[in-house]
Fold each of these.
Amino acid sequence: MQRANVNSHTSAFDLLPSLERRAPADERVREAAALLSRARRVLVIAGDGVARHDARPELATFVAQMDACVAVAPDARDVFDNFDPRFMGLVGVMGNPSLAEYLVRADACVVVGTRLPYHVRGGLEAELARRPLVSVHFEPSFEDGAPRVELLGDVKVGLRALSAHIGARETQTIALPPPQELVTTFLPGVRPQGLEFREALHAVMSAVPEDANIVVDAGNTGASAAHWIRSPRHGRFLLALGMGGMGYSFGAGIGAAFANGRRTFVLAGDGAFFMHGLEVHTALQYRLPITFIVFNNNAHGMCFTREHLYFGGKYSFNLFQPSELADGLGAMFPSLKVLPGRTAIEIGESLRELPPGPAVMSIQVDPGEVSPFLPFLQVKRLAAK
């Protein structure tokens, strides 16, 4: 089918909205290059605009040129190699808590492909306001820096222009410890039943192929997976953010598997499954290479945590009757492969021996586990004082 008014020479660049297609103003590029040429230690924060504008190679080139450290937004896990020695992990409310220390040591911060919404800048606001800031994006950033230079336009074009204007420079890599992972915590009085998210997710990550798609849902599963799972080196990592995200991963995972034919891992909670989980039927109908992993705590876990942290835990509307989701799906769909996942070892072994088509695994976790989400952790710290 032909597209109306689009000739054969039209590129993907031409199909972007006009504000995204423009090149940044030359005077702004020169101003940013002058600022960065004086900076010996630079932190880059990369967002989903890097993927949207197909600018991963340009980002990697710019980072190498600046000898910069890199942190990524929660919805941009896959825009920079998660195994590169310059990679500092996730930034923001689900991210590496030591990034504020990196930022203190930096002379400048370059924000690429993100407006710095709260989920990206959370926990870093004070330092971002003190640090010289260069933004490469098609919209202005939310954060006020001093000084601040905005390169408004196409991210790929902006990075290329900035790299071309920055000459030889003295650099000093920020020599700090590796990215910090949060320690798993639980609500007071909870005796954990099932696996910890961190243990289960590390087992999943150990078995994920380098070119896989990972599609992560909302809630406790989303925050935990964003924090503890690295993006496959040659794959994709997609995360539900914003309103109405629960259950999105089932349709998104099916779309990803249709698009590139790669093994796709859908990571979702039981609450998300109850929203749209029976899309599994579509994966079966088309024999798609998808592994659905449901983290089952028989609850809307993030809502249950809010009830305890903000309302004293005097009531709960968010605990469910127990369910055996993987076994139930196996009974519904006899051709669906049900994988055991009771221990970390069993998870890894099951995921390394996958069938060619769809499979499902249910992992038991505890509703009392507090996800690595900055607002929750801040409340817990205040309560402990």
Amino acid sequence: MTDAARKGRRGGGRGTSAAGTGQDVPLALEGQEALFERLAGRRPAVFLDYDGTLTGIVDRPEDAHLSSPMRQTIAALASRCPVAVISGRDRRDVAARVGLPELIYAGSHGFDIAGPHGTEIQYEAGGGFTATIERAARELRYRLLGIDGVIVESKRYSVAVHYRLVAPGDRPQLVQVVEEVLAAHPDLRQTDGKMVFELRPALDWDKGRALEWLLRALGLDGPDVVPIYLGDDSTDEDAFRALAGRGIGILVADAPRATLAACRLRDPAEVEQWLQALVGRLAAPRG
């Protein structure tokens, strides 16, 4: 790996993934008509995060289940325009949870991408890192055994350390362990999300890069397409950055915060409401 491929041990591939450089934005439902006016004579392509966007944030990752109404809404949308899910979860995990084989899925923050069966949409950015990630996961599990509430989640191209259930007094020790394991594996970098640290390949690749790749691979990078991305976490800021000046980024957050998105929805319930409104604006499929 060249030095140019490594972009720092912490934060996003293009600087930080933290949402600290943008501005607070208006509510999407209140400005819905203005957003839909941007689609006049053009077609949308919708990209969705999973945790915190399509489902609520839960204490344990395995408890984040997609509701049937949300699934029906996404299916209706996918019958009218391209839809992809870009998640920090493993691709197979998030695909199984959404349960719609007609979608495109990008797992591990876009390191693992696959389209519906029979298409040529496939990309893997971190294939040479799996052994390193497995070693880091084993070390983290062993060294964090004495800390109650910690969840070490192994993925194909990353390992996540969830500390939502960890007592505040134990978190400094957890941080120290994560930093020491990171230091022992120079081919990995750390990104931070909602009560989670994640170690993944130290490549200039993130949700924004994955979004750009998908737009090109799907032939959706022309002026007739409006790409739309919905996400809730700091890692989604990379996707918002990629859409600056060319699409619509929608932050999902219950309170105002600095962001590179264009507008905000408060929670997954509002996400469902907004997507239903979008479905209503698009022509129904023929046949």
Amino acid sequence: MKEITFLNRNAETWKEFERMVANPSADPDALAKLYIRINDDLSYSRTYYPCTDTTAYLNMLASRAHSIIYKNKRERNSRFVRFWTVEIPMAIYEFRKNLLISFVFFLVAVSIGALSAANDDTFVRLILGDAYVDMTLENINSGDPMAVYKSMSSTDMFAAITVNNIYVSFLCFVFGIFLSAGTFYLLFTNGIMLGAFQYFFYQHGLLGESAATIWIHGTIEISAIVIAGCAGITLGKSILFPGTYSRAASFRLATGKSIKILAGLIPFFIIAGFLESFITRLTDMPLIFKLLIIGTSLFLIIYYFVILPFFQHNKYYGKPETVN
């Protein structure tokens, strides 16, 4: 987009914002709504017109507005709190269609994995490996099918699992650079593995027991892969469909917002690692407690990545916006 087009398209919004900034009695909440828009425009301008009066002007507006908006709300609306409660949810909302695509594609892969295992006796070994299958069969025969979760010390397991979860999700995001093909590949392979894995326990009459144990940590772990898939798809689509931006500018903007989505997963990685290392191994735990943990985990994921984004968008904009 040429700079003059960018100016003409947004000038009225900037003028309105400047009038509000100059008004000492301006409502901080009303300013905050426009402040998000100004920061998006500033981010684009820094990327595409880095050394121009336009960027300098927008930077000045954003700086002045920041001091007014947060002057009397430093603790309640600190930068840290805002990042986690507003910026990440707003990024999720903007790319909610990509999240849905990632979720549906993953479910299809899970179904394919389960159906393949049901129709091919060798499929589970092909996907999970002979060593894992043989070990699990031994555990089943010994009366402790979930013994694999007790094979390491809790502390060592926590570190290894948390790092691995971050690594897998990061790959799912980064591989989006290959026009989303890499992200879809990882979603597909992980979905196939999950489907085959669960069908394996179903074959041995242990679907309920395995699900009640595995999904203690798997609820968050699998959700993280799907959400990282959303970030990766966003990255790929920014190259394929840049809209009115240049591909380079579209990619930079999408990268920044996708990283926010990935950052939102960090506390969930830690929770999932803790659950798998310290709680999943408690296989004799009453079923009600297992279901309570699974339900709480599911609620946290749905609230933060589905409900809160819609709530924050409606708070700042009042009505749904069109997503390309």
Amino acid sequence: MDLRIGIVGYGARSRSLREEAHRPGRGSHIAAVCDSAASARETARADLPDALITDSLDELLTSGLDAVLVLTPDDAHAAVAIRALEAGVAVFCEKPMAIDLADADEMLATARRTGTRVYIGHNMRHMPVITLMRELIAEGRIGEVKAIWCRHFVGHGGDYYFKDWHADRRRTTGLLLQKGAHDIDVIHWLAGAYADRVAAMGSLSVYGGIDDRRDRSGERMPDWFSLDNWPPTSLTGLHPVVDVEDISMVNLHLTNGVLASYQQCHFTPDYWRNYTVIGTEGRIENLDDAPGGTVALWNTRHRGAAAPDETFTIPDVGDAGHGGADALLIAEFLRFVRDGGLTETSPIAAREAVAAGILATDSLRGDGSAIAVPPLDPDLVAYFERGQA
């Protein structure tokens, strides 16, 4: 019998995930959608004519669902997820799980107290470029990991994050959390430990100087996205509130001694992530992040700059979003709802990414000093590491 899935927040993210979760007769179907916006509900009715479409979260949660996808703007993630957990409905919550650390911790505590399953949508743990790099590390190809550097060139940043609610720190805390939660989670995963101290710097260097602003209520990101929106200083129609940083960088000290850094820029001409992982016996670096691209390995000594000692092709795992990762993400979630067990994603890791992102934002908006990341209760950690059993 199909799992009955609900969606809360029928925006841009719902389109790619809906396609993976709505497979009538093949294991799951979207049975209900909740959104406060009339335009979103109208779109949902056209896409899902047999589903319950409502603006009432209570109506959705009492409609007999097995699970719900929480795809709202970030500031509503925790409140919606906690209500669903209290109702006994398994939760898929898009990252970041919360924009406040206390809310993230409450979500974990609620999941444990109620016994309702929670899953956080860190799809990069399924991205082929990341899984390939993790396999090389696990095989010992570069020895013991000692440092990880990530540069994130967010070439679509102006269109993606500065023309809607993402630009308002009340809705996101900041892009070092909203966008950086992905990469912080990957850094933790590749290193095998979480950050215990973070220190950051950043600024609103470009988009804060653009005065052309307007309310885009009723519009969606594809309505204004164009590669012709260049250079960044030429952009128009930014969100009325723009108070998040468009360039930021954070240094992280991890509990196992690994040192990491993450840099994010929202006004580059190109759009991709570059990871360098350095171990005691070599280093790996991705030279692209899409299927068909290359991960390079250096593990012999060279006199200067040198071609890689080996190269590996990033595999193609399908045409779903994020290099095929979205299909793997939803498939894992549905299996988890049905059967339980361990998953590649981790609610504890999601919380640690939120903690590092929030405290790094505090650091960059302060004097850049290092801030300690508060640890979780070991018993709570153990519960989730057992697969929420």
